[in-house]
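Hi R.,

Here's the chain you asked about this morning:
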Amino acid sequence: MAFTKSAADPQPTASGPSQAGLKKDSLNTRDIVFMLVSAAAPLTIVVGVSPLALAVGGPGAPVIYVAAALGLALFAVGFMALTRHILSYSGFYGYIAKTLGRVTGLGAGLTAWLSYNGIQIGLYGLLGIQANLAVKQFTGADLPWWLYALISIAAVHFLGWRGIDVGARVVGVLLTLETVIVVILAVAVLAHGGARGISLDSFSAGAIFTPGMAAVLSMGFSAFMGFESGALYREEAKNPDRTVPRATYISIAFIGAFYAFAVWILVQAGGFDAIQQFAGQHLDTGDTAYVLAGTFAGDWLVNLMSVLIVTSIFASQLAFHNTINRYTLSLGREGIFPSAMARVSRHRTPGNAGVLQTVLSVVLVAFGALLGLDPFTQFVVWLNSPGIIGILVLQALMGVGVVAFFLRNRGLAPRWYVLPSAVLATLVMVAVIWLSVANIQYLTAIPAGDPVNTTLILIAPITFLVGVAVAWWLKNNKPEVFGRIGHSE
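And here is the predicted structure, written out as tokens:
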């Protein structure tokens, strides 16, 4: 029988803690959009990540964000159609468990938990770099990256504990500011006619179909990480059947258009024939966007960007922190994680789940500091890469789950385009996974076949298999816990 909203799913009678619900009706469409877009860190991608796409892929780099938006829009069609028939507050974990079974579901749940943690905690390295650059620029003080990371961890924990609605207001302000700064840069570049005139050559076949573009295509998809987490906020959303799908589609459209436009502006600022070499020469210093902004708008814009990129990364970390906490809450409610993780704070937030994520962040940042890891090429890349692969795997599984659900429940009669969209989206995800794995050396700057690359590739699949093994063990030894997998609502 399908697990639909009308089905009497087993409820978590879990052993132990009070399982008061999260704060109802606290998020509207705008709030969820802010959370989803902030997770994608628009200014961080434009300033900190897109120069690598330009250096490897060349002036056609804006197209990777258009391609990713189209692929993920196809994915969202099927995923949002599914959410109308299946109730889940556990994101990919719950939906995969209810479409592909509890065994696969637990593998997905642990993979999601690990992947989002890897992405969120890895960003503390980037925040430390950018915060130090900003402080050094204004005061001359040169402090270690991990100090800024620890301060950020404390602030993220407080806002996550205080409430999702408070966090949504904070990231809303930060997102508005970082969007405005990119618009100012765009106006300055366009007003000056760019470096060598304004053109649309970035979207020509000659710029798109190059070996470098194939290598960076996965970077386009990774820039959208977190857009799918809107489903996690259904418990706290007003009219979730309307607000969550609407927020998801708005987020995909905004992120795709914003990234493609902003990176195209960088191409105009650097010059179509020169931007690839220019970005490559500035990768070590990380100042591609700053130099171009200073050339066309002046030092005042550079100074403002140096501050807002820090707040952009912070907003992304807060959004991912909230996502991780809700996965932890679900796993605690079901007895997979310790029952203490199911407790809700007096602010109706996943309090203990937030403590766990914060402690894990502190431990890994301290570990990176003690080992002397480079905050970007090692701490960020080594933590983010398995997370990106893991989320792509979950998206592919979710596509299969959508197809399987509607084929089993033909009486639901989804719109004609839902199944074709889900099939096509799944194929796209599989292709992107292959590209990510085949070209991981471009992200790590370590030769192909190196044990480090192999390890980063295998972390997510091994985590999935561990979840599958645990689920089989629970099925045979603790059937009451097995019966709650993916059913924490």
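One quick note: The chain has 19 helices and no strands.

Cheers,
M.
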